[in-house]
Amino acid sequence: MANQPLKIGGVTVRPGESKDIGLELSETYTGDAIRMPVRVIRAKKPGPRVFVTAAIHGDEINGTGIIHDFLFGEACTIKRGALILVPVVNVLGFENNQRYLPDRRDLNRSFPGSSNGSMASRIAKKLMTEITSKCDYGIDLHSAAFQRTNYPNVRADLSQAATRKLALAFGCALVIDGKGPLGSFRRECARAGCPTIILEAGEPWKIEPSVLQIGVQGIRNVLIHLGMQDGDPIPPPYQATIRKTQWVRATVGGILKFHISPGEFVKEGQPIATNYSILGQEQNIITSPANGIAIGMATMPAVKPGEPVCHIATLTAGQISRYEKRLNTSKADPYKQAQEDLATNVDIVDRAPVEGV
């Protein structure tokens, strides 16, 4: 695509130009246009075209903050190719502090979309037509769902060579293998020939400093990898490829007190949380089903049977031993800082480990 004309929303961006475009997505009840903000940066020299999108879920604004920070200073200057930045995709959800669109559909389950379908389907089609089809690579930024937090991790279909290289180049400590849910943006982008990865990090409704640092650093790593920027990539303290994850769920209703923080390594049988009755009586101890790392946790301490408590990514005992040493000895490590930052949003108390752990 390097030498093809670049036109978005009817606006042509020529080599060496940067333009802000309001891409029309829908209309209000009064017929006024609803526009998605897009910044297009095009270098004079031809090269790869990369998009970075955020807030496909309107309440997941850590990605919005990442793009916002990336736009400051010289971080977004490129020497070749084109960079398309979309800080808010789901403008309607963003305006209402809502994950979903007004039609109650999940935009990230509506791709590739249709020009004659539902509101979600039409917006999905517009994004595929105006952004995906004009790019060679994509990065989509997400946070956890309502009442949860995610320790920073990249998710990608590692069976595709180009996607795998992109995921590893981002430089996140955790890379989770998977195609993505049916109808998700990254899955359909990959099917359309545009290798795309996602970053999952932090909570909804928040812009968290350590998440911003990891996100901005990751975007820059990708651009260096693609030859669009000069410099040396910043590697993570370790990089683990995750093939299996599992949610640990509550078995009885009650109030949780956690014994681990997001991003903490755990061993099989280690206490994750204690479930207390509403009057303070201990009901049961929830333990880890495997060796691994806590990549997601509930921030809502009240639970019913079956509700998620902790998301564990499986690692070997040897991996845990190596990674803990690298994380603990690294200076100014945003991943260590993310552990501390995200832990402030859950009630954590000490508890002696179970026997044998």
Which CATH class of the largest domain?
A: Alpha Beta
Supply the CATH superfamily name of the largest domain.
Answer: Zn peptidases
Helix content range:
10-25%
As a percent range, the share of strand residues is 25-35%
Q: Please report the distance between the alpha carbons of the first and last residues.
A: 54 Å
- Count of domains: 2
Q: What global shape is seen?
A: globular
So what's the oligomer here?
A: single chain
What's the number of helices? 8
Unreliable stretches (pLDDT < 50, length at least 5) are none
CATH fold description of the largest domain: Aminopeptidase
Estimated structural class: alpha+beta
Reported for the largest beta sheet, the result is: 13 strands, mixed
Listing every helix as H and every strand as E from the N terminus to the C terminus, the arrangement reads EEEEEHEHHEEHEHEHEEEEEEEEEHH
Based on the coordinates given, report the CATH architecture of the largest domain. Answer: 3-Layer(aba) Sandwich
Query: How much is the average pLDDT?
Result: 94
User: Based on DSSP secondary structure assignment, what is the total number of beta strands?
Assistant: 19
Rg on CA atoms, Å: 21 Å
